[in-house]
Write a structure and sequence with these properties.
By secondary structure, this protein is mainly alpha-helical. It has helices at residues 2-25, 30-58, 61-82, 96-99, 114-143, 149-173. The chain contains 6 helices and no strands. The model has no long low-confidence stretch (mean pLDDT 80).
């Protein structure tokens, strides 16, 4: 439970600023920049399983996880300290109602529009179709087909390499 909470909190703290930075820095090729950004997670997901498997064979699980946590902590701290926004910071809101995006009659009208719910539904369907298979590929390969753990990790690597190659192309097409 702690890992889930900390992972969610950390991802939220990193994801939102990255998305706003891409939106600020890229104007003409913004969709390609987003495609490359999302492909980078697939690249790391293709590289990390074999690396972590090797580290787990060389060191204990505790040493590997602590070392990985320290590495990520330093890498993210360095990255966050070196990235600068292109646009100046916005002025703070003057009233409490300015903080709430759903305050007022005008701002909540989007909830009644069918297009909003279509976008939400398509986002949920995309998440089910992309993320769930990648989570269960190794388990399915080892338990159902009897594949070794190394080959199951290799299947996940192939999946993520294909994802890393295709995501920038979606950005080019849009």
């Amino acid at each position: 439970m702690t890992q889930g909470v900390l992972y969610g909190l950390g991802s939220g703290l990193i994801f939102a600023p990255n998305m706003s930075m891409i939106d600020e820095w890229f104007i003409r090729r913004r969709s390609l920049a987003y495609g490359i950004y999302f492909a980078s997670s697939s690249i790391s997901a293709a590289i990390l399983p074999p690396v972590l498997r090797m580290l787990l064979k060389m060191y204990s699980a505790k040493a590997t996880l602590v070392g990985w946590g320290i590495f990520i902590g330093f890498a993210l701290t360095f990255a966050l300290l070196t990235v600068r926004p292109r646009l100046p910071f916005a002025k703070a809101p003057e009233t409490a109602s300015d903080l709430n995006p759903l305050s007022g009659d005008k701002s909540s009208k989007f909830l009644a529009k069918p297009l909003f719910w279509l976008v939400i539904l398509s986002n949920i369907m995309q998440a089910f179709s992309q993320y769930l298979p990648s989570v269960y590929i190794p388990s399915y390969a080892t338990e159902v087909t009897g594949t070794s753990a190394e080959n199951a990790a290799f299947l996940l690597t192939i999946y993520n390499i294909a994802s890393a190659i295709c995501q920038p192309f979606v950005g080019i097409l849009t």
